[in-house]
Amino acid sequence: MAYNYPPEKLSVYLSDDGGSILTFYAMWEASQFAKHWIPFCKRYKLEPRAPAAYFSSSDNSSDMSHHEERLSMKILYEEMTSRVDAIVESGKVPEELKANHKGFSQWKSEMTSKKHPPIVQILIDGKDPNALDNVGNALPTFVYMAREKNPEYHHNFKAGAMNSLLRVSSVISNSPIILNVDCDMYSKNSDSIRDALCFFLDEEKGCDIAFVQYPQNYNNITKNDTYGNTLSIMNEVDLCGFDSWGGPPYIGTGCFHRRESLCGMKYTKDYKEDWNRGSERNPPDDIRKLEEKAESLATCTYELNTLWGHEVGLKYGVAVEDVMTGLMIQCRGWKSVYYNPPQKGFLGVGPTTLAQTILQHKRWGEGNLQIFLSKYCTFIYGHGKIKLGLQIAYCINNLWAANSVPTLYYVIVPSLSLLRGISLFPKMTSPWFIPFSYVMVGKQTYSLIEALLTREITVQGWWNIQRMWLIKRLTSYLYGTLAALSKILGVSKMGFTISAKISGEDASKRYEQEIMEFDASSLTLAVIEFVALLNLACLVCATSRAVMRGWAIVLEMYFLQILLCGLVVAINVAIYEGLLLRKDKGSIPWSVTLTTLGFVMLVSLVSRV
Ligand SMILES: O=c1ccn([C@@H]2O[C@H](COP(=O)(O)OP(=O)(O)O[C@H]3O[C@H](CO)[C@@H](O)[C@H](O)[C@H]3O)[C@@H](O)[C@H]2O)c(=O)[nH]1
Ligand SMILES: [Mn+2]
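Above: the input record for the complex with manganese (II) ion. Below: its predicted structure, written as tokens.
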């Protein structure tokens, strides 16, 4: 709300899929606090303008009045958050508070997060001449919405929520440009709107731009990024590459969309944006009427027999609705722009445990593969519509999950062959040894240099990314592949497991100390544990053979296999610690360790027969 942008042209919506009165209460509090906060931000040109982020950074103002005002604002903010916390804790909004706004009366006792009517409440109507902040300036429009939920109708997760939001906003503000941000993110730069608009308003090149995508950055990544969650390589390398072929994919958050292109319009050469479309509405005499109209657009039945979720709005049925929607927009003739300014636009919360990371990537891997295996595969659907370079670029992500199959082969078969004494790769004396070792060494060196050049990744961080590369391929992507296949065969339906935003105190501490948290289920981790122990056993076996027969012969025959096996062992040190050495709550239970050991012994014995 505090963006450096004319408030009368700005409307902020919050979509609450749970339909909770507590969220509404927190929003009502925020609408009151905004009257003090916005003028304070504008007076001192503060950054960042999300209060929690601003107050967590130190005060380096030399101006006395700023300093004093900051203190009183901080007290106001803390009083508000403690009121909200206390009410959330109690789970009930007291009756006397409900008298403050008509919106509270919308909640009835029988309503649950899974079953409730649509609720739209305009907390601040920017068109109302009396909606002013405490120094008399206009305020942006501020709207709470919860679309109708009913177990009888599929809600289509985030895509469903976004589509309701698109319709609701069309009757309230109908702005030509829409910014969409995930619930776990905040804005870091108050100029982001102006920056993004520069692209759309460019008289020569702006007409065919459908969306301006900012990178997805997290504010909770530790120094060495234990779970390899930073998207730095994607942000600094991959997305820039996309940009040169027609534009980045839509990645779900930190994205400015042209309303019309998101609503299914095809790009034609004579297309002209109507920049005045949003300002047509007059202040209503009866705001409740407007809200009711908006509510009627957010019912479960509204979309039945319409093109919403297919040709209009965000696409349903894919775990990565964002990538799919972006691809469809590009195939309708639009371009997109990737904008990655040095001053980050948006910051969010990345996963902080192994289970959260695995879960998020399973959804991403599965959804992307689903696109590749469907009629929307970029080579088929995009053929003739987007450039070949872009079709191929999409495959980087679309084939993440499928990559798990060759990975699984490469970390099991060469090691088992080593155990049996079968040489798979060229001998050291063969000329073919050179290309094989070049690929192995070259690939790793390249990725290390690439990582260090981003300036955001340390050497240890790069190593952690390599470890997670393997772990993800043997968990998220493997299960993602199975899930995508079972969906295609019609065995199961799509789900969207929301990434957890919080974890326990103990676990948070381990996250800060960069100790891996093996909180995923034993079944999820079974493959990676098996691979880690199997490779350790094979390496020990190969070493003892070398000691007995002489290193020279063994290395000549098996150098590349031993190197591969050794790399897998080195990369999995954290797994051995979790399996064998650690005793804290985040380690792997003994029962799992013993079962895996037993299984590894069995496989080794069988393979030697
Ligand atoms: O039924 C649902 C499920 C999710 N969401 C919203 O979807 C967003 C993304 O969910 P989150 O659990 O934070 O997922 P991430 O893995 O962090 O999200 C990334 O990946 C998703 C696709 O898998 C994209 O939709 C997101 O924009 C992108 O940030 C959040 O704002 C949620 O509030 C809903 O509104 N309704
Ligand atoms: Mn998220």
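Notes for the reader.
Strands lie at 11-15, 119-124, 141-146, 177-180, 185-187, 209-213, 217-218, 255-258, 335-338, 346-348.
Residues 522-549 form the longest helix (28 residues).
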